Amino acid sequence: MGEQRRHGRPHPSVATIRYAVRTCLHDLPAEGLVLVACSGGADSLALAEALAFEAGHTGRPSGAIVVDHGLQDDSATVAAKAAATCRRLGLDPVEVVTVEVPDTGHGLEADARQVRHAALTAAADRLGASAVLLGHTLDDQAEQVLLGLVRGSGARSLSGMPARRGIFRRPLLAVTREQTRAACAAEGIAVWEDPMNTDPVFTRVRARAAVADLERDLGPGVAAALARTAAQLRTDADLLDALAADARATLGPDGPHDVAALLDIPPALRTRVWRTLLIEAGAPPGQLGATHTDECDRLLTNWRGQGPLHLPGGLRVRRGEGGVRIEPAGPVE
Question: How far apart are CA 175 and CA 323, in angstroms?
Fold first, then answer.
């Protein structure tokens, strides 16, 4: 903070994050409440500081929501400290929301993310917020892209996290984790170090280590390159998804879906159409992968009379009499 005081201007990392937040909010109504999702870590606290600074200069109503997942013995204390820091920064309202993370079988990270987003959405609705800011950084985006490469799930998976989706916005996707730490240090903000961030049992932690190894072995810039790849592929994926939606509409609302009509759809779109059809039939999106859509496509391109496919969500996909049916699997006889 000494350097900042002497020169009368913020630390470069603080300035970068404040600018990112200001840019992110430019299209929102000035009177619209903006909330930041704060965990107490460096990323979300740097974001909270920037939002509070913006609020102080523009008068925009700005607050914070701290979600306590209850996954650690001291989680309530951590949440209370994060909320107190947000209040000291000048944010209001500031609320702590306690949730229970169920075990759905999809993994702790996925389950926690789902209940967290639900809690944030509910809080935003209740408070009438225009937007909720999330503290994902360039490093998080790079790790997401690397995981997409490992899964082999195509361009949509490689396009990473969107800067905006519904009420959620991610202003820091071009900001590094190092910058958020530097910003908090410059502003004298104490941060919480989540022990889960260093536990290799979690896939994202192993991805973080892998990105660090790549940076060491191939030279700096790997994380930034992965993040740029995500931004470029997102534009392509958005276009392909729009074209696939048009193609889906030509099939009609109900099955069976005509084999010839499906084959008329270009392969790059058809895999997306398959995914849409399966989700419409009740398949959980998080459980669908390229192997499932590829199996469905072989009913068209490599048909040898094979039996029905059994897919996530208790679905059965079968071909017969010139069409493909997607339906709930019947009881085992």
Answer: 50
